[in-house]
Design goal:
Blueprint (H helix, E strand, L loop, with lengths): L1 E8 L5 H13 L5 E4 L7 H14 L2 E5 L9 H4 L10 H19 L5 E3 L5 H10 L5 E5 L5 H6 L37 E4 L7 H4 L9 H6 L9 H12 L1 H4 L2 E6 L15 H20 L3 E4 L1 H11 L6 E6 L8 E6 L4 E5 L5 E6 L25 E2 L15 E8 L2 E4 L7 E7 L2 E6 L2 E4 L5 E11 L3 E10 L5 E8 L14 E5 L4 E5 L6 E5 L3 E6 L4 E8 L6 E8 L2 E11 L5 E9 L1
Parallel strand pairs: 1-2, 1-7, 1-8, 2-3, 3-4, 4-5, 5-6
Antiparallel strand pairs: 9-10, 10-11, 11-12, 12-13, 14-15, 14-21, 16-17, 17-19, 18-19, 19-20, 20-29, 21-28, 22-23, 22-25, 24-27, 25-26, 26-29, 27-28
Length: 579
């Protein structure tokens, strides 16, 4: 079953377009959550229409903390529209003003609020002023560096590292799923739009989401022909096979349904594609496969139906460009991990939620505008597989035979199967066929098991001409929030054997620690409040281990465990991330 939210924001300058949107949804027998801005609350006809929509169609009336302008507010906001970018004193002033006016007009506080992002201090203040708030639009999945670049370096929204679906925001960092009720900020958050989970990793994703006019911006349509819009809905519907349910929303502003400099097409095309999307929702509803809810209704369902620790997964199959790439996402309160099947099953993005990094934004914080949850691995930003100089942030399996190395990242695979339960997730990749320069070949089958507590187990099974092959599990980490390096001082590298532990502070000298028959190799990474350990599992016996620092031209750390396939062609490695 797909749970659907349809969101609309009022717009005095294009109010007739807003009313047309409302009429279209109602003609299809569905309802919306409508969000009024502070300045809308002074317009009697807007308030009257909202009340009429609520009474006749069951639409929800919520508050939009976007476009922070209006009587008395302009002196505080001074043209800044985004609540997360003010200092804490101004956040409180603005929200007291907006929420107070809402209560004055409707004789109650809103239960649903929207913004592109709420940082931890904004959400805390919101709940202090209006504890009645139950649901909010709380972030834009993976909008950050690439959208900033794509918008001519002028869109200061950094929301990377967050959940792609609804979540219980944590008090200390709203983009992290809360571990339990004591860690919870007290609302259910949903993302601003459902994003394409392949293109969210590969590039900017504001074009590729549940917003037909934005797909026009990305030129993903041929006039009114755009199968992508409905294919994206269907891919989200597929996730119910793994998670038992799926969530979707659409949030199209009025400016996208009129003449717009971002589109080469007239408004009729945007309206046509938006109508097709909504009509498909109606068809699914009639078939009993979709339930349209207000945001507050969804928040209540989520609280009743979802446990804090429940993991969620997403199997993404790239469809717009027909590359047939597979990406697998897993999220729980301890980890968010992306497995890139197109690069042999490497980990391409890893967020160590278990470190419980706290972050507020605003000019009174050291974070300023960047609200992202930091990564431990991000291959798209930090080089990944080498194509120019050194490789960068990623994991892989390196196979060496007769001195010749093949990196599993060069061998595309697919996701063969996915299993998910409250105990975690398990995926099996199709076998990767590795061919050495001498013509011999080895097949590698990879299984991932991801469990609560920050535990990722990689199981490898090699077959074929394996004699003389050394197999090295390889992790190259680099904490950060953007594509630029951060200071790695403070990292401590470790190697452990049965008798001793060797340690080394990170000093950018490309030194290494090596050990024979290791028990584990690891790194303490204070930048993400975490310790990363690689250890053999299930009786596997690596012949050697390594931990290495980089330098200023290679600002990463490396962990390796090497297995001799003459001993065994099957081995397991446990990657454990702890606080």
């Amino acid at each position: 079953m797909m749970k659907l939210n349809i969101f609309h924001r009022t717009d005095p300058g294009r109010y007739e377009i807003f009313k047309q949107q409302q009429d279209l949804v109602h003609s299809l027998g569905m309802k919306t959550s409508i969000f009024l801005h502070y300045f809308d609350l002074f317009q009697d006809h807007i308030v009257a229409d909202a009340l009429a929509y609520n009474e006749e169609f069951g639409d929800e009336i919520g508050l939009a903390l976007n476009r922070l302008e209006g009587p008395g507010m302009d002196d505080i906001s001074r043209g800044l529209e985004h609540i997360w970018l003010f200092d804490e004193e101004q956040k409180r002033q603005l929200m007291e003003m907006a929420l107070g006016k809402f209560e004055e007009v409707f004789e109650r506080m809103p239960t649903a609020v929207t913004s592109y992002h709420f940082d931890s201090s904004a959400l805390r203040i919101l709940k202090e002023i209006a504890p009645e708030v139950e649901g909010l639009v709380g972030g834009c999945f993976e909008e950050g560096v690439r959208v900033f670049h794509g918008c001519n370096h002028s869109w200061y929204l950094f929301n990377e590292g967050m959940p792609w679906g609804p979540w219980f925001p944590a008090k200390g960092h709203t983009l992290r799923p809360a571990a339990d009720e004591t860690d919870w900020a007290g609302v259910v958050a949903v993302p601003h739009l459902a994003r394409d989970m392949s293109l969210s990793y590969e590039g900017r994703n504001d074009f590729w989401a549940s917003h037909p006019p934005n797909v026009i911006r990305g030129m993903g349509n041929d006039a009114s022909f755009c199968p992508y819009d409905l294919n994206l809905i269907d891919q989200y519907r597929m996730q119910a096979d793994f998670n038992g349910h799926t969530y979707y929303n659409t949030f199209v502003g009025t400016q996208w349904l009129t003449w717009n400099h971002n589109s080469e097409y007239p408004p009729e095309v945007a309206w046509d594609l938006y109508t097709k999307q909504l009509t498909y929702f109606k068809q699914l509803k009639d078939q009993g496969e979709l339930d349209d809810l207000t945001l507050t209704e969804y928040a209540r369902w989520h609280k009743e139906s979802r446990a804090f620790a429940e993991p969620e997964v997403y199997l993404a199959k790239e469809m717009l460009y027909q590359s047939h790439k597979h990406y697998f996402w897993h999220i729980d309160p301890d980890l968010r991990v992306l497995i890139d099947a197109n690069q042999g099953g490497s980990i391409g993005d890893l967020r160590a939620y278990i470190g419980r990094v706290e972050k507020a934004t605003g000019p009174d914080t050291p974070n300023r505008e960047n609200g992202a949850y930091p990564y431990l691995i991000q291959s798209q930003y930090r080089t990944g597989y080498p194509n120019h100089s050194f490789d960068g942030s990623r994991t892989t399996l390196k196979l060496v035979k007769n001195g010749q190395e093949v990196d599993l990242c060069t061998v595309p695979t697919k996701v063969a199967s996915v299993e998910r339960s409250s105990a975690g997730s398990r995926i099996v990749l199709t076998p990767a066929s590795v061919v050495f320069p001498d013509g011999s070949s080895v097949a590698v089958e990879t299984t991932y098991v991801i469990e609560p507590g920050g535990i990722i187990t990689l199981k490898r099974s090699l077959s074929g001409e394996t004699e003389g092959v050394l197999a090295t599990e390889y992790l190259k980490g680099a904490p950060g929030c953007t594509e630029y390096p951060t200071d790695l001082h403070g990292i401590v590298l470790q190697v452990v054997d049965s008798e001793t532990t060797q340690e080394m502070d990170y000093l950018y000298r490309r030194r290494r620690l090596e050990v024979v028959e290791p028990k584990c190799v690891g790194a303490v990474v204070p930048q993400v409040n975490s310790r990363v350990m690689m250890a053999p599992e299930n009786g596997s016996t690596p012949s050697s281990g390594l931990a290495r620092e980089g330098n200023l031209f290679e600002p990463y750390f490396v962990l390796e465990l090497t297995y001799d396939t003459n001993t065994s062609t099957e081995f397991s490695t446990c990657l454990t991330i702890t606080a």
